[in-house]
Amino acid sequence: MSRMLDVSDDVRAEIGDEEADRLLAGENAPGNYDCTSCRTPGDSGREATSTVLFVGDETAVLAFAHATCIPSQVVPVAEEQLQGAVRSITASQDGSAGDGSPEQAVLGVTSGLVLIEGELQPALVVEPTSAVARPGADAGDEFLPLLAEQGFQPVADLRAMPASLPGWSVLLAAGQLHAVLQPGAAGGTPVAWWQAHRPLQVTDSWRSAANKSQKVLVLAAPVGSIGQQPREDLLRSALDKAAAEGRLVAATLPLAGT
Ligand SMILES: [Zn+2]
């Protein structure tokens, strides 16, 4: 039994005794990992390590952290965001816009490489499938103002990397995209701003670029700005057009996981 890995009772309750025991026996232990809290490398064979489970109603993602950073724990994920992710993944898989009601905005997330400052940067492009109204309001598209309040900055052109956004991160596990995390209420544990119902595949080149830079450019535009672009040069053109029209916000987020 590994004494270096801690599985808390609440994590054990979520993943089950069998999976917890396999982790503790080292069969499923991560070995080397990137700490989900401080994002520096860890080694579950040599350092005290906490298991951290990001959990929604239908999806759970297991991650690891230095025990000195955070204790083993379950991090709840907002059901509302989870439902949005379910629909957006379904929509991207069947190529349709999904069947959500018009009032229910869904975040479509596309990964791609974007050339900035002479380097191909791993990027996520986020575009809702409909207008995003402010909670309680029944009209208007407040997607960009809401993101600006979270610290995303307007992009006039894509020549420089945008500022980083404290407390936010992009969660990649085993080479698949799981979630975009934002700070919890009152400095609590992070919650998912967007979570994939099923982990989203990224290309090998995207993953290696993200592992190299340890950061991900997140670009967001209101519905109708970007669309589904089959090639990265067309994606770039659509992004440049949205930026020129003042319809693009961005932030640089650190990578959590590998
Ligand atoms: Zn750490």
Automatic annotation (TrEMBL):
It comes from Streptomyces candidus. This is Uncharacterized protein.
